[in-house]
Amino acid sequence: MSNLTSKEANYKKIIITISIVIPLAVVALFRIKIPNVEPLSFLPPIYASINGVTAVLLILSVVAIKNGNRKLHERLNTMAIILSALFLVMYVAYHMTSDSTRFEGEGLIKYVYYFILITHILFSVIIIPFVLITFMRAKLGQYNDHKKIAKLAHPLWFYVSVTGVLVYLMISPYYA
Q1: How many angstroms separate the CA atoms of 150 and 156, rounded?
Q2: Which of 3, 40, 85, 110 is least crowded, fewest Cβ atoms below 10 Å from its Cβ?
């Protein structure tokens, strides 16, 4: 087994583990409420902003690579991954200290909200391995394979980032 194949096999094991552990951990931690702590009610606008910044970084990343600036493209995507991880930590921390907020809109807007919310949640789980595989392929210098999967990963990740902001904006009037 060559060094590259060995590295790729190790990355794939890590990607599979992360792609399974993160959603399971979020579901488990979502059910845990830390007693006798002040709710972290200041977090939703912060993590919604992080989603917005991530969306901007993803756009700038595409612009950078189309202009041939691979180093900037890599930095922007690395920052987007870091921000996504930071979002996840804040999101879980908020839900471990606060009750979930119910959307109280009625009529068509209720269906729009739930469509956006459900697709946001589904794609946020689905995107994890895609982002990590895309990142791994770039790190291994497999740029053609990187480019192929990025054509799927990028729009999904962008959708998750933008819909995260939309979900926050739609539910924010109902926060306690």
Answers
A1: 10
A2: 3
- Label residues 90-115 b or e (16+ Cβ within 10 Å = b): bbbebbbbbeeeebebeeeeeeebee
Q: How far is it, in rounded angstroms, from Cα 15 to Cα 51?
A: 22
For 97-153, how does the pLDDT look when each residue is reduced to its tens digit (9 = 90+)?
A: 998 889 999 999 999 999 999 999 999 999 999 999 999 999 999 999 999 999 999
77: Cβ contacts below 8 Å, ≥ 6 apart: 57, 58, 61, 135, 138
Residue type, 69: N
In whole angstroms, how far apart are CA 127 and each of 2, 6, 71, 73? 29, 24, 23, 19
User: Which residues are within 8 A (CB) of 14 and not within 5 positions of it... i.e. 6 or more apart?
Assistant: 132
Spell out the residues 6+ positions from residue 71 whose beta carbon is closer than 8 angstroms to its own. none
> Residue ranges of the alpha helices (H) in the chain?
3-30, 43-66, 70-97, 108-139, 143-171
In this structure, what is the dihedral angle of CA atoms 62, 65, 71, 77, given to the nearest 10 degrees? 20
With 0-12 / 13-18 / 19 or more C-beta atoms within 10 angstroms meaning exposed / middle / buried, residue 155 is middle
